[in-house]
Amino acid sequence: MIHRAFRYKLAPTSEQEALFRQFAGVVRLVYNLALEQRRDWWRHYQRQAEGRLNYVAQARELTALRAEFEWIAQVHVTPQQQALRDLDRAYANFFAGRAGYPSPRKKGVNDAFRFQGREVEVRRLNGKWSTVRVPKIGWIKFRDTRSLRGRLMNVTVSLSANGWHIAFACEIESGKVADNTLPAVGLDRGVANTLTLSTGVHLHMPASLAVIERKKRRAQRVASRRKRGSMRHAKARRRVARLQARAARIRQDWRHRSSLDIASRFGTVVLEHLATRNMTRSAKGTIDAPGKNVRQKAGLNRAILDQGWHGFETVLAYKLEERGGYLCKVDPRHTSQTCSACGTVDRESRESQAVFVCRTCGFRVHADHNAAINILRRNTASMLVEERHWPSGEARTIGGAMRLPENPPASAGGRC
């Protein structure tokens, strides 16, 4: 099974938008009340072995809460139950060490509510518009930009800077896909050049992002001069949020278009195994051990995050999977310092960000192109492997290179 999300822009009436805000507000209240109840229980009863405060116990109390307050009962029960499930999952992630301690939800920050798939109904109106029936809200029009596929699991209505959206989470039958026989390509990710292929092609984020960034900084300066809590301050903040949302949509569109083009032309794509989270950590340090070159490191962190390396990798992985392709990862050490012509490793060969001139053989090439060739060859050297399926679903390290299994789970980032 493959899980996919289909997100659309809603076109609600003013009455429906008021109901959206009412639903989101009650869901936020239920979540925060349940969080406070768990905190109190932990402070007073953590040493007692009897009893346990979990989703089942809090769902029973939700029934009593709805019976006592009519304005809470006016909102459908499913989004409130889903909020309790979200809290239960947040605590599970906290105790497993995967996330921090759950925090209260704030008004206007990620306002959303969720229904189960069987509770909604979708109808197509024409070539451009469809409508969805949401319990206790009614039929809502949305711009149908692509057809839904698979079995509907759940539906989330959320508020972003440019309006309300609806996301359908679907489960799609994977089926058997024939192995992709298209050629392999190495891919180097960078800051000056977002992507460089071993074929010599450079791919860049749209230039319009730089224009939006300048407008956003100007809007942030305006917002900083407004009085906090005033209407003008809120208006200025909304303008900043709209610009940020627009930039995010442009990046996401570019990632999908570029990854689709690569997945359609190549059967195997080789990337460096980069720990993006570690690479973008702050360099401020502590009072006792202050960091060095903090401003330069902060600028590099912003540049890496703006390029969206990990997001592109995730999108590329599932597009390759749908076409029977492979996503492979190799050790990134010295890929930019190794000559792709003679194999000599010399850090002095990289004369600048863009120029690579080998000190041994004199080979001259664009530095990112040279790295992409080395990435591809490093994976080719690791192809002398008899096993092609590892049940654990984790990558194996072979001769300094990493190759993902044939059928890893969706979280592995390979042929998911």
TrEMBL record:
One of its GO terms (biological process) is transposition. Residues 170-282 form the Probable transposase IS891/IS1136/IS1341 domain. GO terms for molecular function: DNA binding; metal ion binding. Residues 309-375 form the Cas12f1-like TNB domain. The keyword DNA-binding applies. Keywords: DNA recombination, DNA-binding, Metal-binding, Transposition, Zinc. Transmembrane segments: none annotated. Residues 1-45 form the Transposase putative helix-turn-helix domain. In the N-terminal section; belongs to the transposase 2 family. This is Putative transposase. It comes from Roseinatronobacter thiooxidans. The lineage of its organism: Bacteria, Pseudomonadati, Pseudomonadota, Alphaproteobacteria, Rhodobacterales.
